Amino acid sequence: MEDQKRLGELFEEHRSHLQAVAYRMLGSLSEADDAVQESWFRLSRSGTSHIENIGGWLTTVVSRICLDMLRSRKSRREEPWEAFLPNQNINQGEESDPEYEALLADSVGLALLVVLGNLNPAERISFVLHDIFDLPFQEIAPIVGRSQDATRQLASRARRRVQGVNSVTHPDITRQRELVDAFLAASRAGNFEALLSVLDPNVVLWDDREVAIDGTVKELRGAQAVAKQVAGRAQAARPVLVNGTVGVVVAPNGRLLFVLDFTVKNSQITEIELVSDPSRLRQLDLSVLSE
């Protein structure tokens, strides 16, 4: 009994770290908690007599559990964004705390969570362990079942996708960011005049959630109409790179609901396309914008 109690104490010393690792890999508080609990079950069955570094052992175990969960999610063809809505607090049995969930998601970075959802499981594990938690590739390679060189390439490929290295080719990306930031600020504040200043008078908004009888996507035309539609919103929106240009993800608590893809001409927004269809979202190249 004393041995089990001591084992539990050792595990609790590493729980917060394991939770952080699992959350960044899975994007879900409830799934992260499941992974951490499973790592406890495996430790309690194994004991510590053969373990030299319990922290490293637990990180490896929880990473493998997360990899299996990600692969299982993919094999069931679940939409990756569905996992980004935290629905359970870290301690089992507690009621969900939306403020806590939002705080945790923001601490990770909502845009980062969404972009991580575009990576395949091995890329995601390699990137999170190496770039976020500084594990060497020689320790990550056995987890993902690849050689060190292959694991390094996985992390490098993931890093390029996260940082948008191959996507930032537009010559006016800074001006786009300023314009989109101004649009979001005006939308959140419900500042109608500020919205009109960034919208082209003939701006068009397409929303794939609104479909006409003939199957075409409905459109909203004119700065007045579009400003009225978006004023007071965008509370959960964050700027990202969408196919190499500045756009927006709307992801409350990290759950991707839709993407806004902007067309900019003459320092004004001329077109806004709202994309919410999962099959279309998967085709978008999303990358995190540096602050």
From TrEMBL:
- Specify the RNA polymerase sigma-70 region domain's residue ranges: 10-75
Where do the RNA polymerase sigma factor 70 region 4 type domain residues begin and end? 111-161
Which Gene3D superfamilies does its entry note?
Answer: 1.10.1740.10, 3.10.450.50, Winged helix-like DNA-binding domain superfamily/Winged helix DNA-binding domain (1.10.10.10)
What highest taxon heads this organism's lineage? Answer: Bacteria
Pfam families tied to this protein: Sigma70_r2, Sigma70_r4_2
NCBIfam families given in the database record: sigma70-ECF (TIGR02937)
What assembly does the database describe for this protein? Interacts transiently with the RNA polymerase catalytic core formed by RpoA, RpoB, RpoC and RpoZ (2 alpha, 1 beta, 1 beta' and 1 omega subunit) to form the RNA polymerase holoenzyme that can initiate transcription.
Stated name of the protein: RNA polymerase subunit sigma-70
